[in-house]
Recover the amino acids of this structure.
């Protein structure tokens, strides 16, 4: 079994599901002949034809709006936006229609589409290509927001997203698209949505993160271990709805929590997790909750983007701050 | 020398004039001679008008929320609905009740919706038809997506959508035209041009001579018809739907009509438009001319008209009673707010549902 990258795992999951479900269609600009700007759909049009892997005009509103219509009439469109910054025009259709159709029609109709996009910074991309906009999606009722952080989780979670009877926004951390190789068995086994994954057991502090920040957070955990600090690392994976139970269980054990995300701090998903801990876990906390996040600024152009994004060093620093409280 | 590489024209069709006479020197469609069918369609136009008047009255007396009237659009809407088959898909905006009535949506469903109860959207018409669409023009793309699904499935089904003159200014409308053209989709885009987008008149949408020509820009056959002429509107729909069903692609039809009412019951059109214009539009309205034509054909008379009005009043009252009985005596349970959010309800919503059950609001409102 070959070891594959995260982006190859995306392709593998798409191919698997297209093979077993004839209603699945890949829909977006450059997804066909070109195989997507990051090659996430490479080879799929050759394999499944141009009626299953459809190159569209460059019109994000159209792509999202037509996906709503297709999904409501029995298809499973897996939409690709080239970059998360180009998803903003899609918000109208995802929020006003995809997310609401089941609710509005009392279950008469539904919209089981998947809206995929390469997401996040750190690849030296031009302006508007590097935002982390998961909080935008997470705020709206009726749509799930899922972010994988490894090849195997990309494979399993994307399968689950496509099979889910409701709309899913699937954000792919492009900085780690090719960072790590992992053995992924193409067995069609999905991973559960709406649950966190505990990546590393620990007893002193809980580090909560998702997406590409798993890389720096794991590095921080290793650095902390060298200093005698045992950090538990949680990959949230589905940032809406959040599995607070797993996070609470961990914080009950460690008494300390650092939340890490590269999106801006203000109204970020980290704030929701912190509020959830304040609501239900406050008496288990031995120290204030810390957030290590992107700044509340525009994501800078690439020469400065790594100054914006949390580093392992910042995470270690925050974890140590929580340890100052006994 | 510059060469002309593209030129276009927009044809206008009217078969029945404002006086209720067939237009001279024009070959009229077979429907013009099918008096029995015309009577049936006239009956639906009349029912819709009686319904509309009653709905506005219900709103004024506090029994209905904000309501979007369809007064003056009856010919266009009946033409659209009656040209479609059940298996076709309708993606309406929010005032095409007559089209939906023809497709089996109940008057009480419409009242439920505007009465603030989601069960109205779970209506009695075809289960694959889209619900009313309040954001402007987004429905054009849902119809294009539906048309794409039918094309990919190889089904001889057609998607039909309606947008207003205001909606024709939106990107969604233009993007649907573009998509329909690029993929030759089985789609009919109808612009029901009623001259007013709330308070913004047609002349301020753009300075193009017609709205139909926006379809030509995208490469679609596009015509303009008198939207108060049922015969012309229905003929245009038949032609466009046949083309779409036979794989010849999408069309744009601009139906020129007039919004005789306010935009909704929350609007007061007297603030922005002249009464003379409205008075003049009443002389051109669709029921009057069809009735005159049917009377001239010996197919209609005052007695039949009065019988019809009485029958419509009774049917509308029945729908009102059904609506009021349901919202007052069989309200949606609190759970309904949560139960249709997702097929598989996340844990946090189960918790919120428990809170909502513990603290039910006293009474209901619209």
């Amino acid at each position: 079994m070959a070891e594959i990258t995260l982006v190859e795992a995306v392709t593998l999951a798409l191919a698997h599901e297209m093979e077993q479900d004839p209603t699945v269609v890949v829909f977006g600009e450059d997804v066909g002949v070109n195989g997507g700007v990051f090659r996430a759909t490479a080879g799929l049009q050759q394999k499944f034809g141009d009626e299953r892997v459809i190159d569209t005009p460059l019109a994000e509103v159209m792509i999202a709006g037509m996906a709503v219509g297709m999904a409501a009439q029995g298809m499973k469109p897996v939409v690709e936006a080239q970059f998360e910054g180009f998803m903003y025009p899609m918000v109208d259709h995802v929020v006003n229609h995809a997310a609401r159709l089941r609710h509005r029609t009392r279950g008469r109709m539904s919209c089981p589409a998947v809206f995929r996009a390469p997401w996040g910074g750190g690849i030296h991309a031009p302006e508007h290509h590097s935002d982390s906009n998961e909080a935008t999606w997470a705020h709206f009722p009726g749509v799930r927001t899922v972010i994988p952080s490894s090849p195997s989780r990309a494979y399993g979670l994307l399968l689950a997203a496509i099979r889910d009877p409701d709309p899913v926004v699937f954000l792919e951390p492009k900085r780690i698209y090719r960072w790590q190789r992992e053995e992924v068995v193409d067995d069609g086994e999905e991973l559960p949505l709406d649950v966190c994954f505990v990546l590393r057991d620990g007893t002193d502090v809980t580090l909560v993160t998702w997406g590409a920040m798993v890389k720096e957070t794991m590095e921080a955990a290793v650095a902390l271990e060298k200093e005698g600090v045992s950090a538990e690392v949680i990959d949230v994976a589905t940032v809406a709805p959040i599995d607070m139970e797993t996070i609470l269980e961990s914080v009950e054990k460690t008494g300390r929590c650092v939340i890490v995300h590269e999106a801006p701090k203000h109204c970020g998903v980290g704030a929701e997790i912190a509020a959830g801990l304040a609501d239900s876990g406050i008496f288990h906390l031995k120290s204030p909750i810390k957030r290590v996040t992107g700044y509340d600024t525009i994501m800078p152009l690439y020469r400065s983007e790594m100054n914006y994004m949390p580093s392992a060093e910042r995470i270690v620093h925050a974890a140590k701050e929580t340890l100052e409280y006994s | 020398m510059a060469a002309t590489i593209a030129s276009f024209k927009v044809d206008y069709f009217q078969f029945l004039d404002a006086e209720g006479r067939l237009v001279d020197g024009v070959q009229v469609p077979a429907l013009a001679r099918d008096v029995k069918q015309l009577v049936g369609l006239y009956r639906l136009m009349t029912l819709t008008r009686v319904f509309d008047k009653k709905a506005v009255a219900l709103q004024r007396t506090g029994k209905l929320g904000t309501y979007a009237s369809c007064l003056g659009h009856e010919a266009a809407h009946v033409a659209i609905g009656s040209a479609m088959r059940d298996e076709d898909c309708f993606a309406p905006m929010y005032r095409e009740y007559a089209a939906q009535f023809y497709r089996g949506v109940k008057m009480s469903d419409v009242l439920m919706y505007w009465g603030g109860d989601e069960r109205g959207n779970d209506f009695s018409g075809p289960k694959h038809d889209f619900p009313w669409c309040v954001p402007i023009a987004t429905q054009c793309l849902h119809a294009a997506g539906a048309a794409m699904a039918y094309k990919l499935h190889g089904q001889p089904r057609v998607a039909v959508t309606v947008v207003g003159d205001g909606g024709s200014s939106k990107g969604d409308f233009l993007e649907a035209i573009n998509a329909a053209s690029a993929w030759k989709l089985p789609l009919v885009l109808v612009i029901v041009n009623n001259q007013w987008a709330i308070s913004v008149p047609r002349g301020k949408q753009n300075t193009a001579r017609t709205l139909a020509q926006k379809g030509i820009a995208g490469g679609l056959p596009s015509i303009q018809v008198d939207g108060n002429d049922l015969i012309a509107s229905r003929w245009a729909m038949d032609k466009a739907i046949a083309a779409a069903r036979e794989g010849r692609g999408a069309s744009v039809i601009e139906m020129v009509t007039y919004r005789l009412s306010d935009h909704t019951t929350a609007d007061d059109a007297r603030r922005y438009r002249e009464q003379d214009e409205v008075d003049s539009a009443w002389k051109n309205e669709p029921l009057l001319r069809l009735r005159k034509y049917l009377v001239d054909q010996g197919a209609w008379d005052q007695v039949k008209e009065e019988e019809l009005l009485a029958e419509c009043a009774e049917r509308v009252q029945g729908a009102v009673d059904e609506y009021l009985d349901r919202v007052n005596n069989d309200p949606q349970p609190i759970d309904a707010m949560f139960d249709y959010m997702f097929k598989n309800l996340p844990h946090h919503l189960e918790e919120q549902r428990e809170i909502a059950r513990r603290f039910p609001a006293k009474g209901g409102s619209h």
About this structure: The radius of gyration of chain B is 21 Å. Chain B touches chain A through 44 residues (CB under 8 Å). The first helix of chain B runs from residue 35 to 60.
